[in-house]
Specification:
The chain has 428 residues and is α/β, with parallel strands linked by helices. Helix content is 49%, strand content 18%. It has helices spanning 2-21, 50-65, 80-89, 104-113, 126-133, 150-168, 182-205, 229-241, 255-269, 301-313, 317-323, 352-366, 375-387, 391-405, 417-427; strands at residues 35-42, 68-74, 93-99, 118-122, 143-148, 172-177, 218-222, 244-250, 277-282, 293-299, 327-330, 335-336, 339-340, 344-346. The chain has a six-stranded parallel β-sheet, with helices on both faces. Strands 7-6-8-9-10-14 form a six-stranded mixed β-sheet, with helices on both faces.
Length: 428
C-alpha cells in the first residue's frame, strides 16, 4: 500500500510539473454588445407620440435581444445629418434608426457615406430619394424605409366614429391633419372610406340607425403644422361646434389641442364621458383623457424599431432590402418570411398599461404632471367608457378588420396628387 501511495504521489507531482509547463488556456474574449442608435425627430423623449414610441421599441429590443440602445436627440432639423453621422461613427453600432418623415433626406445622404452600417427610417422615403438622385445605387443595400398601412387603420376608426354618429344621432365626424404630405393622404382617404363603409353596413344591418354617406359628413382640416397646438384646438373646436361626435387626431401633438376643445365642452356641460370623443393616433392615447378618447389608431413605431433590430441580429436585414427594394411594410396581417410583423391596430384595454407607463416616464423626464389621474382610475374610466357603447359597434369594427385582413375588402392607399383628387371628388 505504501508503494502504491508513493507511486500516486509521484504521478501527482509529475502532473503538477507538466501542468506548470503547459501553456495557459486562452481567456475567452468577451462578446461585444451590439448597439443600435435611435436618432429622434425634434422633441426627443417625452413627446408621448412618435419619438417615445421609437424609444419604446429600443427598450423592448434591449429587453429581448440584449442590445445596447444609444439615444441621439435632434433639437432642430439641422441636427439630423450630424446626429446620424455621429451614430454611424460608433464602431459598435450596427443599426442606426432615424425617426420620422423629415429625416428621409438625411438618411439617404449619410447611409451612402457609411456602407458598412445599416440604416432604418421610420415613416421615411429615403430609398425613393436614392432612386431619383442615384439610380445606379438603388436600392441602397444598407438602407430600409419602414412604412405602415395607415389607410387600413384609419378605415377602422372612420367606421368606429361613424357608428358612434349613428348611435348618438350626430351629423358629422371630424379629422384634424398636420402638414399636407402624401403619408397623410393615406390617413385621410382611409378615414373617409371607412366612414362610407360604415354607412353601407348600417343600411344592411341597422336600418333603424342608417343614414346615407354625403360628402360633407366628414369634416376635415389641414392645419399646416405638427407643432402648433393652438391650431389643433381651433380646428377641432369648429368641428365640435357643428356637432361632430368624434374628431380624429392626424397631427401628433395637436391632439392636445383637440383634447382642450373636448375638455371645454365637458366642463361646460358637466360631462364625465363622451360624446364628444376624440380619436388618438400612433400611440395608445386613450389615457390622455379617459372617458373621452374613444380609441386610438395605433401606428406601431416601436414595432418598426424592434423588428428591424431583429432582422439585423438574424442577418436578414440586407437580404430583405434587396428583395423588397428597401421597404418594409407593417400593417394588418403582414408577414415577412412567414413571420407575423404587424404594425397597425386599434387600441384595446389590453395594451393600455404600457402606454400609461409611457406617461409616467414622460413625467420623470419633464418634471411635469402628465397622467390625468392615478393608473387604476385611468383603467377604470377607459373600461367604463368602452362598455357604455353598444356591443354591436365594437363587433362591426371587428368585422371590418377581419375583412381587411382576409382581403375581402380593399381600402384605397392614396399617395399621389392624381389619386387624392379622384378620391376627394368621390368622398368629399
Amino acid at each position: 500500500m505504501a508503494r502504491g501511495r508513493s507511486l500516486l504521489t509521484a504521478l501527482g507531482l509529475l502532473g503538477l510539473v507538466l501542468g506548470a509547463c503547459a501553456p495557459a488556456a486562452p481567456t475567452p474574449t468577451p462578446r461585444k454588445v451590439v448597439k443600435i442608435a435611435i436618432v429622434s425627430d425634434i422633441g426627443g423623449r417625452g413627446d408621448l407620440s412618435f419619438n417615445d414610441m421609437a424609444f419604446k421599441g429600443g427598450d423592448d429590443a434591449k429587453r429581448d435581444f440584449g442590445v445596447e440602445v444609444v439615444e441621439v436627440i435632434s433639437k432642430v432639423e439641422a441636427d439630423y445629418v450630424p446626429n446620424l453621422t455621429t451614430a454611424a461613427r460608433d464602431p459598435d453600432v450596427q443599426l442606426i434608426v432615424g425617426v420620422g418623415f423629415l429625416l428621409s433626406d438625411a438618411l439617404a445622404e449619410v447611409a451612402r457615406k457609411f456602407p458598412d452600417k445599416n440604416f432604418v427610417g421610420i415613416d421615411t422615403y429615403a430609398q425613393s430619394i436614392i432612386q431619383q438622385k442615384y439610380p445606379n445605387e438603388y436600392p441602397l443595400p444598407n438602407l430600409m424605409d419602414v412604412v405602415y398601412e395607415e389607410h387600413k387603420g384609419s378605415a377602422l376608426v372612420g367606421a368606429l366614429a361613424t357608428f358612434l354618429a349613428a348611435e348618438y344621432k350626430k351629423p358629422h365626424i371630424g379629422g384634424v391633419f398636420g402638414i399636407e404630405i402624401p403619408v397623410l393622404w393615406k390617413f385621410e382617404i382611409g378615414y373617409k372610406w371607412g366612414a362610407r363603409w360604415a354607412t353601407e353596413w348600417l343600411a344592411k344591418n341597422k336600418p333603424d340607425k342608417a343614414f346615407p354617406y354625403t360628402k360633407d359628413f366628414v369634416l376635415w382640416t389641414y392645419t399646416g403644422t405638427f407643432s402648433d397646438i393652438t391650431k389643433g384646438y381651433e380646428a377641432a373646436k369648429a368641428m365640435y361646434a357643428r356637432d361632430a361626435v368624434a374628431v380624429y387626431n392626424i397631427a401628433g401633438p395637436l391632439g392636445l389641442g383637440i383634447n382642450q376643445a373636448v375638455e371645454e365642452i365637458a366642463r361646460a356641460q358637466g360631462l364625465k364621458s363622451g360624446p364628444p370623443f376624440w380619436i388618438g393616433v400612433d400611440a395608445n392615447q386613450d389615457w390622455i383623457n379617459p372617458g373621452f378618447v374613444i380609441a386610438s389608431m395605433m401606428k406601431r413605431v416601436d414595432k418598426g424599431v424592434y423588428y428591424t433590430t431583429k432582422l439585423v441580429l438574424d442577418g436578414k436585414f440586407r437580404d430583405l432590402v434587396k428583395r423588397n427594394k428597401g421597404v418594409l411594410v407593417l400593417g394588418i396581417g403582414t408577414k415577412v418570411d412567414g413571420e407575423l410583423m404587424e404594425g397597425i391596430s386599434v387600441s384595446t384595454l389590453a395594451d393600455l398599461d404600457e402606454f400609461i407607463k409611457m406617461g409616467e416616464t414622460a413625467e420623470k423626464l419633464t418634471g411635469k404632471k402628465v397622467l390625468p389621474a392615478p393608473p387604476d382610475e385611468i383603467r377604470q374610466r377607459v373600461k367604463a367608457m368602452r362598455e357604455a357603447q353598444p356591443a354591436w359597434i365594437w363587433e362591426a369594427v371587428a368585422e371590418l378588420e377581419r375583412k381587411i385582413r382576409n382581403g375581402e375588402v380593399q381600402v384605397p392607399m392614396v399617395t399621389t396628387e392624381e389619386e387624392i383628387k379622384k378620391w376627394r371628388d368621390e368622398l368629399g
